[in-house]
Amino acid sequence: MNKSVALTSLAWGLFIVLIGLSWALYEYYGIPMVPYIALGAGIILIGLNVARTGFGMRLSKFSLFIGIVAFVIGGTEMMGFYELPLLAMIIVLIGLFIIAEAAASLRKTK
To answer: Which of 12, 21, 31, 82 is 20–30 Å from 3 (CA)?
Structure first.
């Protein structure tokens, strides 16, 4: 297994554990899951890209962007600043990222 696949597998494993723990906390204590999942997913994705650069691999702008957004959304929801539908916001941000990447690619080919 190469390092890239191993890092990706590690990140997915951490994400699954995060969802399971968040679900258990919700079931047992009634603690809302979304802010913790968003914050944890952000930390996992940012950490994945830090590890990639540490191993000399190219970082993924897409996963880094999603990680930063998830971290900010989770942190602000935990502090009670605002509550937005997380999944809808992530879908919109993914679309905007794809549009920005396509626009940048079109500008480079001129």
So the answer is: 21
Rg for the chain, CA atoms, rounded: 16
- Range of the structural domain that residue 95 is part of: 3-108
Angle at 2 between CA 13 and CA 67, to 5 degrees: 45
Question: Which residue type, as a one-letter code, is found at position 56?
Answer: G
In the chain, how many domains are there? 1
Q: What angle do CA 98, 67, 1 make, to 5 degrees?
A: 90
Residue spans of the chain under pLDDT 70? 82-84, 86, 109-110
Give pTM, 2 decimals: 0.76
DSSP label of 32: -
